[in-house]
């Protein structure tokens, strides 16, 4: 039974335990703790179970639930006895529960899944959420009794990534395992998350049937446009117009409602006014539609009432197993010859290619598709998600990672719904496929971040994108410029660039741009002269490509008057194809933007493919695009590093402290006291140099004697923080008289009766490590040297959480003043390993405790003897959005997008 201090109202469960979750087949269910009013639902659920399933769960026939058991199953304390129900609509489809054993750290766990929903991953989901709830309640271990013949249940425990011990007696397996997350269990959860999210997007992009709800006979209506585009693309599946007033639309039989369609519907494209969408949803839910694509506007973008309708819509859809694209979306398309899906408001299906494109803006979507076609960039898939109420860019990253038809990913982003998850997914995807992103709204800070976010300088923004392997560009033009190189050319082996052309002036422009981007010229630009023949021009190209000093080639060309430029273009293409040197080539050719026919290598479909040479209107744009590709290739060649958690971390203890300190704060931010700072940092092995607070000279002397001379005195007064000249930092006090004099001096300049007395740390270089919120990247770890000069110059480096060991090492070396730590002018180097250890511990603290909204360790004294934290400041508050931690769940529908 629960102790008196843990008993709670059985209806009053922790709200953060409630979640929408994605199953292995891409469908959704709603997960929440059981409440007493679920009793009838539990009875109905039990009645649907087969005799075999009941036998496996209860070790006997158990045909009905006795009233005593029903009360026990439905009334729990949400601490020692916890149960979760998985709901599909109003129906319970799975139940998982644990019960603490003898007030100890262990609990018995069990779950059962409706026969119709077995094999969808519900057992694994329940185990993850039960383990997370148990950890919060102080449990450390699960035990389970499973019939040896119940292979599916045994597999759930075996494949979860925990170290499971097992014993068998009389056909019953006794299983035990610690529930603390392990590297293997986290990897298993991430892998299952990736598979489920990819599957849900696959369902969206590979429908066998599409219903157009709101299909119209009026060419001015979007329902007419949507149906026309589907039919014009020659969709490989079945199209069902839904229109209650007509028997057919555009020659295709129509149905009064989606529920009247005789076959299954995979995708429903909704093109009715916003006020009618809710009634459409009812029919889609009844029909069991897998995905809802809403191109209608009038939701969150229209104001509070629209936002409320949007949240209600997505909540209902998810609860009934359905995912939503939009509202206010342009639509989705798939150019695969076996699909040919154009479920967008754009008139034409793009050429087949190997590039996936995600954008938020429906207004820009049509222009993006037209621009891709004009430049000769084929697409594999395209999603314009509009308001992103449900399906987001992160879902598409999961899909494209394993999509064999996609080699390049392009993103047009206005914001990140879950920045930590984006960084994690992008870093993983970019190791095999380039990710190029336009990020608009860079300086727009959400209100809930305003108190704890800080401006990050532009070079650091670039570094943060590069940390994740994302190629960041500022405009759509730059996005396509860069994409053309990635889509058609190989990655370079290094930064050495050769330039060949027939104009010295244009060649010098290309050379200047290359040097500005840090590219290395193999030699001065080669100028074949305006009178050179196509053969001579091609010979110069061959010579440059043959050189072992060349990693990439820039070709600049001005058409001569005597010979058509197309002859030179064909000569260039033939030379490149013939040599096949696997070196990227960009060109400024014929003033053409994109891939001209003469420079194109065509696929079987007749569209430009690998080996085509992209052309740009100016040499600067050509070299800019190449430079981004060179930087990405260098990132991919660098060691990836490992996500490191230093030894001696106590995350559970830290969470207890955080919850205790935030109790009763009602969503406010809280500046921690010095003692609480020490307690929280101590959970992560970060020691603050010992100190005492003294309010008299005698107390200061006593504190100094307890700490051991020499000591430092510092003012407690907040107004003196950051003023070492006034606050008394680094006063070397080795005697009682010195302490008394220093105390008197500080009292004169301070408005506070109290001063800090701190043991003297070894002399070293003052550094600062911090945590802060950022609207684009989530939690950032920063590093720099302390002092007004570094602050004035903005000499800080940033990395996004989570950090690898490589991230931590490069973070320390990035500030311009960092040479002071490595033996500048013959000084003895500081212990960088100790500093790196602190950085990794700070990153782990941020990862485990998103309630830490900001933190500053300043100063950290870095010396050859180690790194010593002399002062720390921590602010707690509610996390700005769901962090990328804990059991798998979809982004809450009320989270910022």
From TrEMBL:
One Gene Ontology MF term: ATP binding
Top-level taxon of origin: Bacteria
The N-acetyltransferase domain, residue ranges: 29-184
PROSITE patterns: ATP_GRASP, GNAT
InterPro entries: Acyl_CoA_acyltransferase, ATP-grasp, ATP_grasp_subdomain_1, CoA-bd, GNAT_dom, NAD(P)-bd_dom_sf, Succ_CoA_lig_flav_dom, Succinyl-CoA_synth-like
Keywords tagged on the record: ATP-binding, Nucleotide-binding
UniProt-recorded name of the protein: CoA-binding protein
Ranges of residues in domain ATP-grasp: 678-723
Region (Disordered): 876-897
């Amino acid at each position: 039974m629960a102790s008196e201090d843990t008993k709670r109202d059985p209806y009053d469960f922790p709200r953060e335990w409630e979640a929408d979750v994605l199953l292995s087949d891409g469908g959704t269910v709603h997960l929440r703790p059981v409440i007493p009013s679920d009793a009838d639902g539990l009875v109905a659920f039990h009645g649907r179970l087969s005799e075999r399933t009941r036998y496996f769960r209860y070790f006997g026939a158990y045909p009905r639930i006795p009233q005593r058991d029903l009360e026990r199953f439905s009334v729990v304390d949400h601490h020692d006895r916890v149960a979760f129900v998985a709901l599909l609509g109003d129906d319970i489809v799975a139940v998982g529960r644990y019960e603490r054993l003898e007030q100890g750290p262990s609990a018995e766990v069990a779950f059962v899944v409706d026969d119709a929903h077995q094999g969808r991953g519900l057992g694994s989901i329940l185990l993850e959420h039960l383990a997370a709830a148990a950890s919060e309640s102080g449990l450390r271990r699960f035990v389970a009794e499973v019939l040896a013949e119940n292979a599916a249940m045994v597999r759930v425990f075996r494949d979860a990534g925990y170290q499971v011990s097992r014993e068998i007696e009389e056909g019953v397996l006794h299983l035990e395992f610690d529930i603390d997350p392990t590297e293997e269990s986290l990897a298993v959860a991430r892998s299952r998350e990736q598979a489920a999210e990819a599957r849900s997007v696959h369902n969206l992009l590979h429908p066998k049937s599409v219903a157009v709800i709101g299909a119209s006979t009026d060419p001015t209506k979007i329902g007419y446009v949507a149906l026309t585009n589907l039919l014009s693309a020659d969709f490989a599946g079945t199209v069902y117009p839904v229109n209650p007033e007509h028997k057919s639309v555009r020659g295709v039989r129509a149905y009064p409602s989606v529920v009247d369609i005789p076959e299954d519907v995979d995708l429903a494209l909704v093109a009715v006014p916003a006020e009618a969408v809710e009634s459409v949803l009812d029919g889609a839910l009844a029909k069991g539609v897998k995905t809802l694509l809403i191109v209608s506007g009038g939701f969150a973008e229209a104001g509070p009432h629209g936002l409320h309708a949007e949240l209600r819509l997505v909540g209902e859809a998810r609860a009934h197993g359905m995912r939503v694209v939009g509202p206010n979306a342009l639509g989705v398309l798939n150019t695969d010859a076996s699909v040919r899906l154009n479920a967008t408001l754009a008139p034409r299906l793009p050429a087949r290619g190997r590039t996936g494109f995600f954008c938020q803006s429906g207004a820009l979507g049509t222009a993006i598709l037209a621009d891709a076609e004009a430049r000769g960039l084929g697409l594999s898939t395209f999603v314009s998600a509009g308001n992103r109420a449900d399906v987001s860019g992160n879902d598409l990253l999961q899909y494209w990672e394993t999509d064999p038809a996609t080699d390049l990913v392009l993103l047009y982003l206005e914001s990140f719904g879950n920045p930590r998850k984006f960084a994690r997914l992008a870093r993983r995807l970019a190791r095999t496929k380039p990710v190029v992103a336009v990020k608009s709204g860079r300086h727009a800070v959400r209100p809930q971040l305003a108190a704890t976010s800080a401006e990050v300088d532009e070079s650091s923004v670039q570094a943060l994108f590069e940390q994740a392997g994302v190629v960041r560009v500022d405009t759509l033009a730059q996005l396509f410029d860069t994409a053309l190189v990635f889509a058609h050319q190989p990655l370079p082996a290094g930064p050495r660039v050769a330039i060949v052309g027939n104009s010295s002036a244009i060649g010098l422009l290309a050379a200047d741009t290359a040097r500005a981007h840090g590219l290395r010229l193999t030699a001065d630009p080669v100028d074949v002269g305006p009178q050179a023949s196509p053969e001579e021009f091609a010979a110069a190209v061959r010579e440059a490509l043959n050189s072992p000093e060349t990693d990439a080639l820039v070709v600049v060309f001005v058409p001569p008057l005597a010979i058509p430029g197309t002859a030179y273009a064909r000569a260039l293409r033939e030379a490149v194809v013939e040599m096949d040197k696997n070196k990227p080539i960009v060109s400024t050719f014929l003033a053409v933007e994109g891939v001209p026919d003469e420079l194109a290598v065509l696929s079987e479909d007749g569209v430009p493919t690998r080996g085509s040479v992209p052309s740009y209107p100016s040499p600067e744009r050509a070299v800019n695009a190449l430079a981004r590709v060179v930087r990405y290739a260098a990132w991919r060649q660098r060691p990836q590093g490992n996500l490191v958690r230093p030894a001696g971390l106590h995350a559970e203890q830290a969470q207890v402290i955080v919850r205790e300190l935030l109790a009763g704060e009602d969503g406010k931010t809280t500046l921690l006291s010095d003692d609480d700072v020490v307690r929280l940092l101590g959970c992560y092995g970060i020691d603050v140099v010992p100190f005492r607070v003294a309010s008299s000279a005698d107390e200061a002397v006593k504190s100094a004697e307890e700490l051991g001379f020499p000591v430092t005195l510092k003012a407690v007064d907040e107004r003196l923080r950051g003023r070492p000249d006034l606050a008394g930092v680094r006063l070397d006090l080795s005697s009682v008289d010195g302490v008394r004099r220093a105390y008197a001096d500080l009292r004169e300049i301070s408005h506070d009766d109290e001063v800090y007395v701190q043991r003297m740390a070894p002399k070293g270089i003052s550094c600062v490590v911090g945590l802060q919120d950022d609207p684009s990247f989530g939690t950032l770890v920063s590093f720099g040297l302390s002092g007004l000069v570094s602050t004035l110059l903005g000499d800080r480096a940033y990395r996004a959480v989570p950090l690898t060991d490589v991230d931590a090492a490069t973070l320390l070396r990035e500030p311009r003043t960092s040479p002071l730590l490595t033996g500048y002018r013959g000084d003895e180097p500081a212990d960088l390993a100790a500093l790196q250890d602190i950085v990794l511990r700070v990153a782990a603290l941020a990862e485990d405790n998103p309630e830490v909204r900001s933190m500053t360790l300043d100063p950290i004294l870095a010396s050859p003897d180690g790194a010593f934290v002399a002062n720390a400041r921590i602010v707690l508050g509610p996390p700005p959005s769901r962090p990328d931690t804990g059991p798998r769940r979809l982004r809450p529908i009320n989270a910022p997008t």
